[in-house]
Amino acid sequence: MKKILLINLRRIGDIFMSSHLINTLSKEAEIYLLTYRENQSAAFLLSNISNHYQIDRKELLSIFSNKLFTDALALEKFYKTLEPILNEQWDEIINYSNDLVGTYITSALANNSEKINGTCFNSSGVIQFNNFWSMYLNEYLTHESTSPIHLSTLYHQMCQRKISTSGNKIKVNFELTSESLANFELFKSNLINKNPNTKLVALQAKSAKQSKELSSSNLIHIAELISRSHEFALIILSSPDEHEIELTREIEQKCQHSQTLRLVCSLEEASHILMNVDVLITPDTAMKHLADLVDCPSIEISLGESDFTKYSSTLDGSLIVSDNLYERDFKTSKTSILPADIYATLLYFFSKSKRIAPNLSTGVSLYTVKNQNGNIYHQYTCGSIHQETEFRKIITHEFLNTHFQNQKCTLSIENLPFNPTQLDGLCSFEKQRLTQISKDLLGTIRILLQGLDNKRNARDFFIAVDKLITHSENKSILQSALVHFRYKIESLETNTIEASAKSLELILYQLKDQIQFAISTLQEIEKLSHEKRKTEFQQRESNA
Amino acid sequence: MTIQQIHSYEVKESRTGQKIPVLNGIHLHSIYNPFKEAEGLIENFAKEINKTNNFLVMGLGFAYHINELNQSLARKYGQNYKILIVEPHSQVYQDCLHFDLLNRKNTITFAGYNTDELYSDFDFLNFLLKKPAVLAHPASYNFSLDYFQNMLNFKAPTSIGESTKLISHPKVKSYLLSQNAEMSIKELATSLNSKKNLNQLDFMTLALHSMAQKSVLMNKALEHEV
Hints:
The structure holds two protein chains of two kinds.
Chain A: E1 2-7, H1 12-25, E2 29-36, H2 40-43, E3 51-55, H3 57-65, H4 71-86, E4 90-95, H5 100-108, E5 113-117, E6 119-121, E7 127-129, H6 132-139, H7 151-158, H8 174-189, E8 199-204, H9 216-228, E9 232-238, H10 242-253, E10 260-264, H11 267-274, E11 279-282, H12 286-293, E12 298-302, H13 308-311, E13 319-323, H14 339-350, E14 364-372, E15 375-383, H15 387-404, H16 420-450, H17 455-470, H18 479-490, H19 497-543
Parallel strand pairs in A: 1-2, 1-4, 2-3, 4-5, 8-9, 8-11, 9-10, 11-12, 12-13
Antiparallel strand pairs in A: 6-7, 13-14, 14-15
Chain B: E1 9-13, E2 19-23, E3 26-27, H1 34-43, H2 46-51, E4 54-58, H3 64-77, E5 82-87, H4 90-98, E6 107-111, H5 115-118, H6 122-129, E7 133-136, H7 138-143, H8 145-152, H9 160-163, H10 170-177, H11 185-192, H12 200-225
Parallel strand pairs in B: 4-5, 4-7, 5-6
Antiparallel strand pairs in B: 1-2, 2-3
Helix pairs in contact in B: 1-3, 11-12
């Protein structure tokens, strides 16, 4: 069997999220995982791991920062830690971390592996990407607060795999499962209404960062609303952290006692609790990703720097409450989201028809997670919307799918949250942008075809290329292609302009194809929009 | 720092009949009741005993305080604890063993080592990494004040040339020997940014350095948040 090493030096939530990819890879290979020791409680819960290596970062840094120890000892200790990995021959190494430390470690291991997925440095220290997706992740997504593609989908693309949905992504402890089930049965039997259909709603209050959390008064208000309703019973989750216990105790005190249960639990216990609840309400937390792994849908309150477009639940039907993406401040927890918005979203979550969308506060939006065979996207459901931002998000997602993944266009005019008039306006606005890029591109190609052997032409050519590259900084549905273009230009390794001419020509024509593709996508939408308008008109006529 | 010279050394008996080392005329334990004295000393460390199962003890003497500490730790942690003892004078250690006064369970003793030797020892370094509580046996500590202060204020060599002496792994050693001996590891990491042909250990050095830098940034961010 193949041996794949996955390097993930990120936090607990990312470790849980990597389980989707691990599950896919485990169908064809033995998976070995490298994490920091401080995250071992999360890594320990993942299924499908053949061996788990750990870097004791705290210890290494104690040596490195302490005057009692020489730094060389830290290097030796680090080498000894990684020696079992360094001595192994790998079929693939995946740099899931995509941070500097992970990338250096991947680079140190490059000669031990047939294939590297993700970013690494070559021996000259130049950054290397295995494909468009790892380039896109590094050169674009890491600097942007919103993304047209969910990272779980992106990591699968980066590793050239299709998401596998079958299989356990988390270890199941049968003792804990039955204990948890029995406790919930008992809890339900003590509820006021004694209704076995009462929905169990779990609430996770704390996040790793304060900026991602709702204020405690708002949390208390949400808990009060839920516990007062006889349709729901509230499970307040808390880690064994003292501050969290204190906060959850405060929440519990304000709730309808018989409808509320507060549970202080470890991650492992939490995973078994989540298996038995109907939905989890949470800010951006590791708990959200854990719920995802046990098929527990979530209602995410997306605040602060948490970007649900990259890191949301992957479960079809999970909901996300966010401030309007265009106006949202990703640095602070400043928000227009009110407890009533969360409660309304909860009611909407359990409604069968989903016909009546909740009435949210001004500036608040609701999104629904859609997962079509691993292609995850966030469908605008209701609330505040910035049309250009939303349109660009949808079309870029489609563009990435169709152009870079060679998938069929799945765009349905019915699912777009715009009427035909709005669509016409948006398409024409985007087309204007594309026309300008197109003009600049054709100008650049013209100069190139005239030849770069005279100084004036060469200078004009560089100015023209530079102008094209600046388009990669502007929001447009072609931004992903332009970032790719910029990267290809910047990584040209030829020494002279003459030698580069052929490569440059190829790159420019690739961009031309992409522009044409984007324009034809917009034209297709316009066509569908016109058809819809026509059908609506005909219907109105026949009704009259 | 060398170990303090002993001009006179004798072993006396306390009023309760316990053996006591006397160095240059200084009694290392109570002449009345060394057990009671040890009990009192360890009682003062109740908080530390509750917090950690690792203790670094400066001064062995004839181990009455060590044995008391050993019992307290065993009561709290069962078998899971460790005591590391540093005693500058080999003679004291040898007599302590000779009279069978030390309960050696879960203890490691470094006797007669100078500071450089101590900080070259992996067991010693690994133990320090566990962030042990530090207990100074007052009489021993005061008698060898310079020795212990030097031990506490030790600064490890920063130059690769000096540090390499402490490295045992052949690959890491040979890598460090091929570098500029005057440089520190941090300077080496910085210089690697302009190196043309990076090898495995170069990348590992860069990874370690980035890890440390990231940690500094994280700490600053946390301070800011607080």
